[in-house]
Amino acid sequence: MSFDRLQEAIIAKKNPTVAGLDPKPEYVPAHIRKECYDKYGETLEGAAEAIYRFNCGLMDALKDIVPAVKPQSAYYERLGWRGMEVLERTIRYAKEQGLYVIADIKRGDIGSTAEAYSDGWLGKTKVGEQLLSVFDADCVTLNGYMGADSVNPFLKTCKELDKCAFILAKTSNPGSGELQNVPAGEGDTVYGLMADLIEKWGAGTEGKYGYTMAGAVAGATHPDELKQIRALVNSSRGIICAWQKTGKDGMDYQEAARNAAIAMRDDIARFTTIA
């Protein structure tokens, strides 16, 4: 099962963290941007190529430290089709390096639209008599607040192709409580009901380590230790932009990212035990 592979990578690297690949062009060191802008101009193509080279360099530096990477699709969509092509290449490169890929897409539509999203991000697209992989991520993030109709097409693909999904339950953004904390029944909340649904949707798919193919996104808020862990886990830009604090104009971006990832791993080790 897909989450078994992720768990085994976490155990092997003794590191439960994920490196976010959420770069804007300005996050890319100047020497990489210059090479790409000299070739393609200050264009969307030049920006996309700079991001791809940056991503590959980061993954080369981090692949023995982190078990997984998590590209956020919005950072690629903002560059149009060129950005999406780079995202496809980024995912392919990550998998070639043995990294587990979580595509952070937070899709949440229904019917044939959800099926199309599932085909593109996890499954295969039929072209003539061929079934062709597109993004081929190992896992996606989903918004299940439209109900089972928005999730079932993805879970069907997960069962067929050994993939998984993280589904939003209680998010950590400041406005999440406007809906998620609303009381719902005796002593329950909307996010509690969503957590129950996620458990129901994943029932019967438990793998070697007891995890189902439907994981829950739950922003930790208590106790204080979990607050600290959340702050560390959310510091993906602290890794990819670590070079901005070294005073070396990004020439050391790989070393800086690696050092930041190691520090993050070691800090989290103070609060967690990985068997």
Describe the structure.
The chain starts with a helix and ends in a 6-residue tail after the last helix. The longest helix has 19 residues, at 44-62. It has helices spanning 2-13, 30-40, 44-62, 73-77, 80-96, 111-121, 152-161, 177-180, 190-202, 224-233, 236-240, 253-269, and strands spanning 18-21, 68-71, 100-107, 124-127, 130-133, 139-142, 164-170, 214-218. 49% of the residues lie in helices and 15% in strands. A hairpin with a 2-residue loop joins strand 4 and strand 5 (130-133). It has 275 residues and is of the alpha/beta class. The strands form two sheets. It has a six-stranded parallel β-sheet with strand order 1-2-3-6-7-8. A two-stranded antiparallel sheet has the order 4-5. The protein is globular and about 60 Å long.
Shape: globular
Helix and strand pattern: HEHHEHHEHEEEHEHHEHHH
Largest sheet: 6 strands, parallel
Give the strand content.
5-15%
Helix/strand/pairing class, anyone? Answer: alpha/beta
CA gyration radius, whole angstroms: 19 Å
What is the CA–CA distance across the termini? 19 Å
Q: Helix tally?
A: 12
Unreliable residue stretches: none
Strand neighbour order, sheet with most strands: 1-2-3-6-7-8
Helical proportion, percent range? 40-55%
The total beta strand count reads 8
User: What's the mean pLDDT score?
Assistant: 91
